[in-house]
């Protein structure tokens, strides 16, 4: 059997890159001698994440369009033209059996020209409401893989399949007893996990200051707060200025970053987070109730749609960023963790939304397309 060649195009944010890396890892497992090449830009996170994952990255010249018409629009048009030339050159050089797009403007020219050249193509949409690039490309590709049932209305039904969002399977493999012991937390008091993505979120941290002040004496629940590397020193200084020593308290754990998130999820009864595709896919895979605060500046407000989807299905409560205060957050936490029936029903609803076999479903569609 001839060696299979695959191109994965996507980038900009981790939400586009991590699913691509998961798919590439699955292809490497199922096609041991496959040639796998990523296409991205010099600007996005793919520049660092793809080589670290052990894959080859080829770069093209392309950038996104501003929402408003400006001089920068002319520059984007020029870059799009150049990106098209770069894409055709790469496609002719590699001669892939299949091209996979995972979103971001970089996927546009690669997927489009692959389709024009008769190369089988598939795109994967991570969010409930798709971005402009994937909505455009869906008219040309052979298959559209979606992560949420509500996304089907945006794409041609005859080529759209619900697969889910591929996340690391080990994320749901933590052991609760071991995790609680690791964090030094009590097994009989609810645990609230709060994080703002890989960089942290200042707005969430600010609200958690009030929560920590109120819960430091009552011990109604325990807290694991991931501040983000760049916010950690400032956050701990703010607590120190208020005379709060979390080390002495024992039930409030502060971390700048957590590498073994499976342990944090295993320990948690409730998760507070933004509503990026990766976060909500991990939260549902772990079957955790959530309080979601969508990032208001996300492209196309896609985090709002992600959060609303979980809320509509009973898996989350939503606080808009503009309405976020410490008082509001504390009341919302209490309304869930102090009500065992609500906590249990939200956990069940969250688990029901998960797609634990997302990667296998995507790989199955890929195998159909390449025969």
UniProtKB/TrEMBL annotation:
Name of one Pfam family that matches: Glyco_transf_28
Gene Ontology process terms (BP): carbohydrate metabolic process; cell division; cell wall organization; peptidoglycan biosynthetic process; regulation of cell shape
Cellular location(s): Cell membrane
Mode of membrane association: Peripheral membrane protein
SUPFAM superfamilies noted in UniProt: UDP-Glycosyltransferase/glycogen phosphorylase
Domain Glycosyl transferase family 28 C-terminal per the UniProt entry, residue ranges: 191-361
Stretches assigned to the Glycosyltransferase family 28 N-terminal domain: 6-146
Pathway(s) this gene product operates in, as recorded in its UniProt entry: Cell wall biogenesis; peptidoglycan biosynthesis
Family per record: Belongs to the glycosyltransferase 28 family. MurG subfamily.
Protein name per Swiss-Prot or TrEMBL: UDP-N-acetylglucosamine--N-acetylmuramyl-(pentapeptide) pyrophosphoryl-undecaprenol N-acetylglucosamine transferase
Source organism: Biomaibacter acetigenes
């Amino acid at each position: 059997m001839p060696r299979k060649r695959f191109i994965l195009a996507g980038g900009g944010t981790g939400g586009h890159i991590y699913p691509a890396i998961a798919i590439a890892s699955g292809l490497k497992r199922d096609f041991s001698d496959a040639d796998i090449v990523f296409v991205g830009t010099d600007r996005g996170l793919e520049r660092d994440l793809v080589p670290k994952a052990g894959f080859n990255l080829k770069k093209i010249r392309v950038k996104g369009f501003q929402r408003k018409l400006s001089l920068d629009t002319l520059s984007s048009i020029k870059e799009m033209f150049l990106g098209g030339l770069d894409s055709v050159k790469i496609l002719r050089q590699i001669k892939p059996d299949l091209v996979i797009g995972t979103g971001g403007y970089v996927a546009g020219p690669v997927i489009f020209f692959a389709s024009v050249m008769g190369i089988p193509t598939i795109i994967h949409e991570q969010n409930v409401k798709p971005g402009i690039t994937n909505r455009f490309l869906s008219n040309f590709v052979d298959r559209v893989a979606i992560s949420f049932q509500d996304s089907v209305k945006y794409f041609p039904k005859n080529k759209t399949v619900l697969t889910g969002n591929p996340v690391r399977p080990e994320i749901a493999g933590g052991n609760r007893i071991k995790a609680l012991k690791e964090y030094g937390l009590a097994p009989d008091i609810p645990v609230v996990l709060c994080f703002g993505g890989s960089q942290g979120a200042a707005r969430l941290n600010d609200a958690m200051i009030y929560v920590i002040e109120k819960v430091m004496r009552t011990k109604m629940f325990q807290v694991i707060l991931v501040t983000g590397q760049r916010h950690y020193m400032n956050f701990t200084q703010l607590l120190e200025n208020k005379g709060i020593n979390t080390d002495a308290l024992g039930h409030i754990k502060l971390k700048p970053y957590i590498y073994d998130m499976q342990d944090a999820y295993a320990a948690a009864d409730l998760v507070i987070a933004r509503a990026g595709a990766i976060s909500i896919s991990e939260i549902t895979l772990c079957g955790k109730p959530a309080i979601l605060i969508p990032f208001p500046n996300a492209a196309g407000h896609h985090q709002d749609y992600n959060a609303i989807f979980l809320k509509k299905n009973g898996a989350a409560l939503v606080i808009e960023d503009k309405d976020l205060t410490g008082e509001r957050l504390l009341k919302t936490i209490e309304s869930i963790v102090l009500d065992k029936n609500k906590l249990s029903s939200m956990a069940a609803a969250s688990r029901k939304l998960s797609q634990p076999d997302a990667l296998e479903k995507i790989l199955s569609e890929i195998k159909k397309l390449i025969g």
